[in-house]
Amino acid sequence: MAIFSGSKSSLSNQKFTLTEGSEAKKSQNSEEEVFYMSCRAAYLSVFRSSLDSITSKEQLCLVLQQAGRNPSQKRGEKMSQEEVKTIIRLADVNNHGRLDYNKFCRLFIATKEQCLKTAVEKLEADGKIRQQQFGSHAGKSPEGTASSASKPSPRTPKKTGLDSIPKKVDRSSRPSSARSYKASISSIISMGANSAKNSKLIEPNAIKEWQCAQSKGCFFLEENNEIITHRYRLHIPQKSTVHLTIKPLNLSQIEGKPSQWISVDTALYVLKEDDYEEDLQLVCFTELRNKETFGWKGEMGSGVYWLIPFTSGCRLRKKRKPVTAEAKLVYRDESKDLVLTKEFRAVLSDIFDIIDLDGNGLLSLEEYNFFELRTSGEKCDDDAWAVCKENFETKKNELTKQGFIDLNLMEANDREGDPDDLWVTLESMGYNRALEMAEACPFIIDIYAEKCKPRIKAASLEAGSGQLEKAICKSVILKGEAKVMDGYEHVIIHTYKSDTRITSVVENKSTNKVIIHVNNEQSKNCVSNRGLNTFAVEVPPKSQTVCQHVMPLNEHQEWIYNCVQNIIA
């Protein structure tokens, strides 16, 4: 999207400059990713896990050599006669006992590149095994609840080809029936078909007389199945009974045909700062349900709370169905002027409704910047926003829907109709090339307070953090059923069930890490957020880790959760 400064005549140049800067930033990010991948590949070619530490000079040398470096035991130790002879033999072109310097340089560079290539190929092969072994969350931090929050970045299309898939993979490390297990726990839960008649979430009788605050937001699905979402600060001025809800936002204009993401599960975790604890403490979460709405009712003291939206990932997942035809975004009319297609205008209208967080029909600078951060990684400053308001339709110093659409038309004109940048924006917002929102789920939050006026404000847009993981683990441990592994009293499996979701957490109280093999093959009418029926979970010492979330494939039919969890020997 465009960032503005100066006057209308300078909008295009300013935008082009910033786009170049954004591309340079993306290129820099790409180089950093390659560098990180190379370092990680080298590290894991020597160690079994990134949790392992370098404990000797010899191990450090091995890692550096795999990274294509050539360290000596002392950064200057003399080579032995045998080592010199070996190098001369390799680089001796004419076999006359002399070193060919040019060949030696080529050999050195080729060896360095081959070491690095071998390490990266091993990492990619291990990654595929890990996908099979550890499920779709393999790329996340292994520290479980201790993992740090990551910052969102603009999404860019990634190319995937057959060449990137390893041709041969050693299956010996994959969990199977042939592996030996030290202990196991079996959990079988039979769940009936859900019905609207069995609603547990009931609105207070006089809720229309309560004061209300509302905000919208969105779950965005990343390439690695990580989910990015808005986070909120909630201010309760005085002690009051509070009723809070979250549900998917229906944007469909057709009666009886809701938006396709309406079945995505949502939840809201409420956290509060504690004077005596460093971390935020769990206050409550929305576990009651009425159709697609999840809610909670209770008493809340005065103060500031953090609201963290959550979706399990069972239903908001990558779609395997390919898009056969790409939608058209722009065309030229009889006057050769560029025009947005009807379909693209409708999508822009929906996007506007999603990023209009307070629902007042206008975009403030703050709301627009959440959109900018998601789609380009940049922010619009006050001066640029002032120029935007001068050149596009505004009301009350905020951008109207027509102004937002015209802004996108200007971007199309800047690129002379080339839709590539427009597609980057659309894909960042979760749309596929058929203009279907397939990798995002907008939602709406309502806060009702009986005795005061609540205030809610979006504070950030980020991926799931350690705080959310801790909140989920704590809620499952507090409300779920606990089973201790036979012979391993320090390893506990906690299982929580609601009408629509079952979540299991592994608690490891021991001083050693454990690996839990999970088998869901006997479950019926179920889908796991891991994306696999069998996988493994690595749990660091003295920690708790979410094992999996499970939901019914078809809510109108009975579903059976049948899970066997084993400690791998």
Automatic annotation (TrEMBL):
GO molecular function ontology, one term from the record: calcium ion binding
Compartments (UniProt record): Membrane
All copies of domain EF-hand, residue ranges: 79-114
Pfam families, sorted: EF-hand_8
GO BP terms: positive regulation of protein localization to ciliary membrane
Chain intervals with Polar residues compositional bias: 144-153
Gene Ontology CC terms, in alphabetical order: ciliary membrane; plasma membrane protein complex
Sorted UniProt keywords: Calcium, Membrane, Metal-binding, Repeat
Chain segments carrying region Disordered: 133-178
InterPro entries according to UniProt: EF-hand-dom_pair, EF_Hand_1_Ca_BS, EF_hand_dom, Miro-EF-hand_domain
Domain of life per record: Eukaryota
Name assigned to this protein: EF-hand calcium-binding domain-containing protein 7 isoform X2
Gene label: EFCAB7
